[in-house]
Design goal:
The structure is a single chain. This protein is mainly alpha-helical. Helices cover 79% and strands 0% of the residues. It has 15 helices and no strands. The termini are far apart. It is found in: Membrane. Keywords: Membrane, Transmembrane, Transmembrane helix.
Length: 424
């Protein structure tokens, strides 16, 4: 019993100590739990604050992302139907440059369309060639400041044509003297064309300018006749009528000069008048000979351009052949005149325009039959007379007006009828 009482006492003491310890530890546990709750709440608040700050930062970043492209100069703003477009200011030089490039490209496209973009290209090329020749006459009348001999003018033009056409062929990759099967045609074109040119210069020196012009405009008729025998081209009645109408138009324009200077020699005329009449007769014969050779030359141009498929070859062959020969004639038959600066520039410009006129003429002969091309060549005479009358240099007369109307009507009919159904 004693031992059990002691043990019970010891157990009660121990339990009492534990109970006392439990009693003493309860406030501490409550205190600790309250601290832990406060710590958890503070942690939650800090987490919420961090989340809110993170969200605010993300929203600010998003706003910055949306604002930066609007303020950036390196990127173009996106434009929709509700936004206003603000074009960047452009300098006047850029606008002028772009406008010039646009106009140049449109001009080049127009030339390319005339060159081969239409079934009327052959007729339009010859019309453009006639217009260029008319421009040459106008420039000569406006800016001629120094009388230059005809052989010297021919030499300058042939030299300019030879140099530029040579560079053209080299840049294009064509053989300069053409394919082997075309060289005889090109040589014939050069020889016949040169003899025709020299004959025309002799004719101009012996006859008046009006008579020389009328004789030169018989060349289209000779070309149509020569094409019938050399190229075996058929000439329709409408084409013969068009050529006749255009030629009579030229006669109406220069009829007063022809009537005045076409009288026969009277009995009482002096020997000087007889000599002058003889020179005129020789001039007329040589002029007709020049027209016949010019018509044959057109046939060789057409054949050479079609065979070589390069109209520039026909121009180069004539220019490279005629240039040295006209130089010899310049020093042999006429006194050389040193041109001034402005006269030389004008001669070079005339040579350049003559090159383009000859190229477009050769292109037209390549694409279209000779009789149709021949009628369009009279357009040059009508345009030159219209310029003379509009510039008040000559009073418009009945003959000039009727002649221009006849030529314009004939050429318009040829253009309206158009080319053949099958363009070669």
């Amino acid at each position: 019993m004693g031992s059990s009482g002691d043990s019970m006492m010891m157990m009660s003491v121990i339990a009492g100590g534990d109970a006392a310890d439990d009693v003493e530890s309860q406030p501490q546990q409550r205190q600790r739990s309250s601290h832990s709750l406060e710590l958890a709440a503070a942690t939650a608040r800090s987490i919420d604050e961090n989340d809110n700050s993170t969200r605010r930062n993300e929203s600010e970043d998003d706003d910055d992302d949306h604002i930066v492209p609007l303020l950036s100069h390196s990127q173009k703003p996106k434009i929709n139907i509700f936004s206003l477009s603000y074009s960047e200011p452009k300098s006047n030089r850029e606008q002028i440059t772009r406008l010039a490039e646009t106009e140049t490209s449109q001009f080049i496209l127009s030339i390319m369309w005339v060159w081969g973009g239409s079934r009327y290209s052959g007729l339009m090329c010859v019309a453009l060639s006639s217009f260029i020749y008319c421009m040459m006459e106008i420039l000569t009348d406006l800016f001629s400041v120094q009388p230059i001999p005809l052989f010297e003018i021919a030499f300058t033009r042939c030299t300019v044509m030879a140099i530029i056409s040579f560079v053209w062929l080299k840049k294009s990759g064509y053989p300069v003297f053409g394919p082997a099967n075309v060289r005889k045609l090109l040589a014939s074109r050069a020889l016949v064309g040169y003899i025709s040119l020299m004959s025309f210069i002799y004719c101009i020196q012996r006859l008046s300018l009006a008579e020389g012009i009328i004789l030169s405009f018989t060349t289209p008729i000779m070309a149509s006749v020569a094409a019938r025998f050399i190229l075996h081209e058929k000439i329709r009645i409408s084409e013969i009528g068009g050529l006749s109408c255009s030629f009579f138009g030229m006669l109406f324009i220069f009829r007063s000069i022809v009537i005045t200077q076409g009288g026969m020699v009277k009995v009482g005329q002096t020997s000087d008048s007889l000599v002058r009449e003889t020179d005129q007769t020789y001039g007329l014969v040589i002029g007709l000979f020049s027209s016949i050779l010019g018509g044959i030359s057109y046939c060789f141009i057409r054949a050479g351009a079609k065979a070589s498929d390069q109209p520039v070859l026909t121009v180069f062959s004539f220019a490279v052949f005629a240039s040295p020969l006209t130089a010899i004639c310049t020093f042999a038959f006429q006194e050389f005149v040193m041109p001034g600066f402005y006269s030389f520039i004008l001669m070079v410009i005339m040579g350049l325009l003559a090159l383009f006129a000859e190229i477009f003429l050769a292109r037209g002969l390549q694409l279209e039959k000779t009789s149709k091309i021949a009628n369009v060549l009279y357009l040059e005479g009508a345009l030159s007379q219209i310029w003379v009358m509009s510039s008040s240099r000559v009073v418009p007369s009945f003959g000039r007006v009727v002649g221009c109307l006849l030529i314009l009507a004939s050429v318009s009919f040829t253009l309206f009828v158009g080319p053949e159904k099958e363009v070669e």
